[in-house]
Fold this protein.
Amino acid sequence: MREIPELFEALKRSSFRSRFQLRRREQAYLNEKGLEVILDHAREFIRTRLAPARPDKDGKQTPMRNHPVFVAQHATGTCCRKCLEKWHRIPENTPLNAEQIEYIVCVLRHWLKGHSISAGV
């Protein structure tokens, strides 16, 4: 796993990763539910969609929009197992452990806090 500052410096250099922004509807949902509820959603998405060693539909399991977590996952390279290996040095084909899941949630928290227009997030 990578250090957060190093990771975000690398993500800034990716034209694909740096183009992701929350749309009005996703921002409104984040503001309405609050960051901690959204991060609970993230934990569930990660447990069901990323944690298995070989997730169903890997590479296509994370939509590009319609939930703040989905946008953040694409922005941070936490969207599929291949990206987890490339961006975070988390090996493919092995189940995620609790520490790795919380690391991913921490990455998502950092991105959401930096890309939210609400002072409360």
Observations:
- Residues 62 and 97 are 20 Å apart (CA to CA).
